[in-house]
Amino acid sequence: MSYQEEYRSKLRSASDAVQIIPKNSTMVIGLGMSEPPALLSAIEDRVKCKELEKLRLYYMHPATPLQDTLLKMEYLDTVDLYPFYATHKEWELLKEGLKEGVKLVNYIPANFHQIPYIMTHDLTLDTCVVTVSPMTGGGYFSTGTSSDYTIVAARNAKRLIIEVNENMPQVFGNTYIHISEVDAIVENTVELPQEPPHKEPSAIDEKIASHIIGHCTDGMTIQIGAGNVPNAVCNKLSQFNDMGIHSELLSPSMVQLIKSGNVNNRLKKIDVGKSVFTLSAGNTEMFEFIHNNPGIEGHPASYVNDPCVIGKNDRAFSLNAFVEIDLFGQVNAEFIAGHQYSTAGGQLDFIEGVQRSKDGISILAATSTAGGGKFSRIVKSISGPATDTRNSIQYVATEFGITSLRGKSTSERARALIALAHPDFRPELEEYAQSQHYI
User: How far is CA 72 from the centre of its chain?
Assistant: First the structure.
């Protein structure tokens, strides 16, 4: 049977394709832009009709298709949520559940590089559903925007249902699924989920970026997270050349650095000439740019986020955010008001990996206050689990400066962090530090 004949034999409507999902099932959903809207809608119909008895759902950072279908309060007697990355949607469901005295979100703590291994060794996945690019002449589909855990789950789940979307870019690297691995195919060409445009960086964001940019150099290999401060930093990186990309996230701001010639990847020690990522989120212009682009490669998080791999490039540079940091240097990047609001993602992967790099620099940045100035991000004690231990942190930046904690004593750390706090909170922090004999 030719690849085209095999394709036609597996082609189904969405409602027919999801009939192979068992009544009691453990399912993984492609991440972000690779969520399959037609399949998720058809699965929602099965949930509505009580055709599924229990659906254990494993996923990360839900986009619009998943939020609009299965992540609804009325389905959670059937659908059990197991996110590796919590967002505002899980926060809303969590609050609704607390009103009724039930726990509706079962967050799984893990660093990003561990998740593909968890998918294959610690979970038994009945079904994987994912959006892919059209089939190549050799019988392959690309998961395009998402390698992360998506490609690994697709290859290892007992059942694989794919949604072919002509707008999903074909991306080189480790993103390909063969027709022989597929159980059912649905065709549905729609616009991929779009990331909303980022707000213009504020004056405070720009000030933080100005502190950070002084630690940047030509020839860096960069990992930059999402947000206003990272965007402000990306805008300022146009003054540097011969940079490389080895990043968890590929964003429109980073693609602009490639287009402008600031990134050419020629000085990297591994994946020379390639901008490497594990997931991408953005807009149609970005998706068109990465489509069939030999200078762009997607790879699983088990590779991209492996600290040992990250450290192989010289001058690796990592920029991420935090919710709060205490006077020891412990960082909470996940908990707000006593509940899981975000997750570790790949933050610690890159903090540790970059510091294995020759001349590597890891920076955590945030405004000094939150809640319109009501709360200090430099705190006496963090209010949730430590996302990053005090032993892992290198640079910390706010609008009041940037400091390295590495090599500093506990007293020196406390004084350096107090200096990064807003002046309104410094006296209280200093008094506490003295009472606890930190300083």
Answer: 23
